[in-house]
Amino acid sequence: MTPGRTPSWNVIAGVASTSWLESIAPSSDGRVLLPVELRKRVSWASPKRSLALLATTQSDGAVVVAPLLERSDEIGTVGAVLEAAPAEERASLVFAAMATYARVSLQPDGRLRLSPGLVRHLAPVGDEPIWVGAHCEQVWLWPEAAWAKTLASAADTLRDAINGRKGRR
């Protein structure tokens, strides 16, 4: 998208004013530039200084990003679970937690600085697009393959819902 151009291509943005979806290219240094239209829809996404965020990798491959301070209870719970785990399970649980949770930062210019593991997860080949979305004060990132699966499932659900509404008229 050309900077300054009105994103008139997104016909649903007016109906879902707190949501945005766009495909972006990762930079070679492990950063992604969050689109301006997305940042307009998330109150914390235009910080005056660097903002610490928690990136949580979901089982479907999506990565959900939210302010770290808002998610500190979740990290505390993970710590308690790891501490209480039997010794023979602890290593695998610690590794799973480390692969699931990562601290990232959002710069005032809208660049999201990702951890090396997240860069590898989101763009394993290096030049694949990353899908980025916003909804209800969260930012979501998907690798291309995970987005394709998510879209296929969601598109079927949307089509069924639309067809159900048409049948009730």
Q: Which features does this protein show?
A:
8-stranded antiparallel sheet; Chemotaxis protein chec; 169 residues; globular; single chain; 24% strand; alpha+beta; 5 helices
Summarize this, please?
With 169 residues, the protein is of the alpha+beta class. The protein has five helices and eight strands.
Bin the helical content. 25-40%
Q: Average the pLDDT over all residues and give the rounded result.
A: 89
CATH class: Alpha Beta
Task: Determine the CATH topology.
Answer: Chemotaxis protein chec
- CATH homologous superfamily name? Transcriptional regulator MraZ domain
What summary fits the major beta sheet?
A: 8 strands, antiparallel
Major beta sheet, strand line-up: 1-7-8-4-3-5-6-2
Beta-strand content: 15-25%
- Which residue ranges are poorly predicted, with pLDDT under 50 across at least 5 consecutive positions? none
Please give the domain count.
Answer: 1
- The radius of gyration is 18 Å
Morphology: globular
User: What's the CATH architecture name?
Assistant: 3-Layer(aba) Sandwich
Roughly how many Å apart are the termini?
39 Å
Tally of separate helices: 5
Number of strands: 8
Task: Explain what this protein looks like in three dimensions.
The chain is 37% helix and 24% strand. It is of the alpha+beta class and 169 residues long. It has an eight-stranded antiparallel sheet. It is globular. The termini are far apart.
List the helices and strands and how they pair.
Elements lengths: L19 E5 L6 E3 L2 H5 L10 E7 L5 E5 L4 H13 L2 H14 E6 L4 E3 L2 H7 L7 E6 L2 E6 H24 L2
Antiparallel strand pairs: 1-7, 2-6, 3-4, 3-5, 4-8, 5-6, 7-8
